[in-house]
Specification:
single chain; alpha/beta; five-stranded parallel beta sheet; three-stranded parallel beta sheet; 9 helices; globular
Length: 259
């Protein structure tokens, strides 16, 4: 059995529309949780992610959140009420800012049985940084979160999904154990052994049928090719230019409406 790790971000009542595809209407998230529950998808607790998955016909599903939005507190309550849990990755510079988690929120989420991980301190893309700056991102966020939680913080999510082998080595030297990327795909024995996990983003326009196709790994290899093509385009165009081009294309397609 493989493991599909989902990435969510912030939630509002109406979502972020085309301006921010990562901000989801809360009703969509509730519908997706209910879909997981009613269809009895096997779920993986955040505590189990370092363990090899047992065999089975469908991938087990794990849930993560990036960016430390204040809406994470309500999301944790929803998960807890349904018997699920998740990993919440917090960029520590944002703690206490309007719209983001407070120190008290982080403690409350942890008390509900959720996991708390680092999303770096400044939420900066780390690969271009110097070794000293990368160490600072790792160490500062770890120190702040461990001070809040009074327990070790072992999980790290790379901002923007940007990482390389040098960063993994530094993170391990600084006592992180599990690393989460934005590389698309499921996780098998190779990823579990390395403790470097692929994840799949759930965007605000994802319909229930699309969500179910994601869970059942329909067209998996075609999607993997699309991801690799996108990553190649990022390397050629640069991250910032790629994001602008992608958003422009999405706006053009949506303005045309259905055929």
């Amino acid at each position: 059995m493989s493991t599909l790790v989902l990435i969510y971000h912030g939630m509002t009542e109406v979502g972020g529309g085309t301006g921010n595809l990562h901000i989801m209407p809360r009703k969509n998230f509730v519908a997706q949780l209910e879909h997981l529950k009613s269809n009895r998808y096997p779920m993986a607790s955040w505590r189990q992610l370092g363990e090899p998955a047992t065999t089975g016909p469908r991938p087990r599903v794990a849930i993560t959140f990036d960016d430390g939005y204040q809406s994470d507190l309500e999301n944790a309550r929803l998960l807890h009420a349904m018997g699920y849990d998740a990993l919440f990755f917090v960029p520590t510079e944002y703690i206490g800012r309007p719209g983001y988690l407070s120190r008290e929120d982080i403690v409350a989420i942890r008390k509900m049985g959720m996991g708390i991980g680092s999303h770096a301190h400044h939420h900066s893309v780390m690969a271009p940084l110097s070794e000293t700056s990368i160490q600072t991102e790792f160490q500062t966020s770890k120190r702040i979160l461990e001070n809040i939680l009074q327990e070790p913080v072992l999980h790290f999510s790379f901002p923007g999904g940007s990482y390389n082998q040098r960063m993994l080595q530094l993170g391990r030297q600084l006592s992180y154990r599990y690393f989460f990327t934005s590389d698309w795909g499921v996780n098998g024995p190779k990823q579990s052994a390395a403790s470097v996990f692929r994840r799949t983003s759930v965007l605000n326009h994802t319909k229930t049928s699309q969500f179910d196709a994601m869970l059942q790994l329909r067209n998996y290899f075609a999607r993997q090719v699309m991801f690799q093509t996108k990553e190649f385009a990022k390397r050629i165009a640069g991250e910032e230019r790629y994001v602008k081009l992608r958003q422009s294309l999405l706006d053009t397609v949506r303005s045309r409406g259905p055929d």
